């Protein structure tokens, strides 16, 4: 996330869920990413109780657990404070389909209402907003991307930051043309069949 410019310091958090073994791995609270070692990662049971690790889990563990409970297709969560997506979040604006790559999230990137970070209220707001989207803006906060694995969740976070930048720059020049819901449905369908034969990766 640091190399891609999606966050700074220890900002944001990452988790993945091994549904077969019923363990959730999540980044710890307050440790900068370059300093992280495998032993620093916190392993939790699905109810949030500790299985292994000496550190406190991310302060946002609540919404990670909420997302895993909400949708069984989610096995990874990436939360960033990426600059352009967070700019839209601070404007309390969704990111529209200004570019077809918004399809990594869905027909748009919806906005979850503001709540203090690390609270049950924020977890509830995100879970209620996610529906069938793969990314959600958090008002005045950042962005959450989800996926079937860490690679797909990270790719979504990265592509949505690109779309947010494109939207920002287009609006600096004029009024961007927004793709229709019908076109986005076609794009999302094509994404599902993109990549090498036998794989359903969308990138």
From TrEMBL:
SMART domains on file: Aldolase_II (SM01007)
Keyword terms? Lyase, Metal-binding
Residue stretches making up the Class II aldolase/adducin N-terminal domain? 1-168
Q: Which InterPro entries match?
A: Aldolase_class_II_sugar_metab, Aldolase_II/adducin_N, Aldolase_II/adducin_N_sf
- UniProt GO MF annotations: aldehyde-lyase activity; metal ion binding
Determine if Metal-binding is one of this entry's keywords. yes
The domain of life for this entry's organism is Bacteria
One Gene Ontology term, aspect cellular component: cytosol
Which GO terms are recorded in the biological process aspect for this UniProt protein?
pentose catabolic process
Q: Which PANTHER family match?
A: 3-OXO-TETRONATE 4-PHOSPHATE DECARBOXYLASE-RELATED (PTHR22789:SF0), FUCULOSE PHOSPHATE ALDOLASE (PTHR22789)
Q: What is this protein called?
A: L-fuculose 1-phosphate aldolase
């Amino acid at each position: 996330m640091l190399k891609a410019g999606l966050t700074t310091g220890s900002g944001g958090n990452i988790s993945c869920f091994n549904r077969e073994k019923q363990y959730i791995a999540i980044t710890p609270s307050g440790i900068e990413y370059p300093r992280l070692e495998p032993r620093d990662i916190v392993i939790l049971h699905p109810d949030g109780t500790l299985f292994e690790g000496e550190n406190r889990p991310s302060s946002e563990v609540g919404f990670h657990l909420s997302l895993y409970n909400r949708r069984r297709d989610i096995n990874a969560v990436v939360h960033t404070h990426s600059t352009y997506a967070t700019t839209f979040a601070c404007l309390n604006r969704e990111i529209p389909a200004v570019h077809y790559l918004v399809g990594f999230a869905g027909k748009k990137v919806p906005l979850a209402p503001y709540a203090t970070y690390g609270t049950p209220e924020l977890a509830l707001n995100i879970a209620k907003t996610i529906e069938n989207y793969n990314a959600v803006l958090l008002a005045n906060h950042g962005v959450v991307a989800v996926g079937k694995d860490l690679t797909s969740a990270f790719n979504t976070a990265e592509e949505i930051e690109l779309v947010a930048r494109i939207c920002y720059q287009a609006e600096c020049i004029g009024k961007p043309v927004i793709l229709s819901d019908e076109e986005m449905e076609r794009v999302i369908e094509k994404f599902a069949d993109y990549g090498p034969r036998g794989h359903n990766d969308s990138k």
